[in-house]
């Protein structure tokens, strides 16, 4: 069989790499003793490694008879030994085959190749929720108009675009009703996958109907439905990225964690990314770092177009937001702004869920909460954003 396939296309056979997969399998199993108790366990680990190796070579081995014979043989052996498709795999010192589509193992691979200790990867967080409030990869916090379609992320590996629509007449505040995500093709880990969510349509599958990318055994990219029609998670292991999408009321929220080195892998023409650089100054609702709160038909503290009465006063909005968020950080004050702007209680849940997503995905616990502070240093690492509640009370007394 080897000679036949080589006569057909020796060059293809050479580039295919199936021989390396087979050699590794023989190496993994040559020392095993069928009489030992752990034989089946170790043999199944070797078979799974063999299977992953053949999948990695599936494209270049498409016309190779030896490759197809090996794939069939692996399946037969796994059935005979009752091996599960998912589970641990055998590995060599030079290569960990089952980690090729696992970003967290890339550092280990570089260490083996270079012989030097490398620092663990740095992860960044971005979130969008409410009217809409943006927390950038730099932990800057902004409230923006950004009506229509805007790119949150656009790099070599991932594109995320959101569409925002006005929430109440006469207000510049908008909220997200559509999210489109493109996971770009990456080696043998996944083909390009497109996900799209809209208000009242939060699917647990990509637009092609699949729920994963790449090999089902490695699960390098997959969608998990947490609450039907309300909350899904996407896990892209091959790029170390996690995405949460929720629907709360009529609008969507998004939270994402991604390695810094991949976030920064973009072309000069891709510089318009809200998660990376924030909103353009012309799209900011907050002025000089202060967020105006609409109360009783006025936009305070610096005045703007009138708003319809939301049904909430500062006092009742404070009470409502305090039910979900005991800590008076930026998420609490975002809740106040959204309630006073729209009167929609769902924005309280959105702010609370956004904080929960930060706690789940943000890599630095000490940066989960960003608090209002006086002086010119601002909120977190951004410009001054919110005045204190006590100052707001003084400003708004004439209007209450």
Spatial separation of the terminal alpha carbons? 87 Å
Quickly give the structural class.
alpha+beta
The main sheet orders its strands as: 3-2-1-12-11-10-9-8
Q: What order do the helices and strands follow?
A: HHHHHEEEEEEEEEEEEHHEEHHHH
CATH topology of the largest domain: Protein Transport Mog1p, Chain A
Largest sheet: 8 strands, antiparallel
Proportion of helical residues: 25-40%
The CATH superfamily label of the largest domain reads Mog1/PsbP, alpha/beta/alpha sandwich
Structure description:
With 400 residues, the chain is α+β, with helices and mostly antiparallel strands. The protein has 2 domains: 17-81; 123-296 and 312-367, Protein Transport Mog1p, Chain A. Helices cover 32% and strands 21% of the residues. It contains 11 helices and 14 strands. The strands form 3 sheets. Strands 3-2-1-12-11-10-9-8 form an 8-stranded antiparallel beta sheet. The chain has a 4-stranded antiparallel beta sheet with strand order 4-5-6-7. A two-stranded antiparallel sheet has the order 13-14. Helix 3 runs antiparallel to helix 4 and helix 8 (314-324) crosses helix 9. The radius of gyration is 26 Å and the shape is elongated.
Short synopsis of the structure:
The protein has 400 residues and is α+β, with helices and mostly antiparallel strands.
Which labels suit this protein?
Protein Transport Mog1p, Chain A, cell membrane, single chain, four-stranded antiparallel sheet, disordered N terminus, alpha+beta, disordered C terminus, glycoprotein, 11 helices, eight-stranded antiparallel sheet, coreceptor activity, elongated, 21% strand, 400 residues, disulfide bond
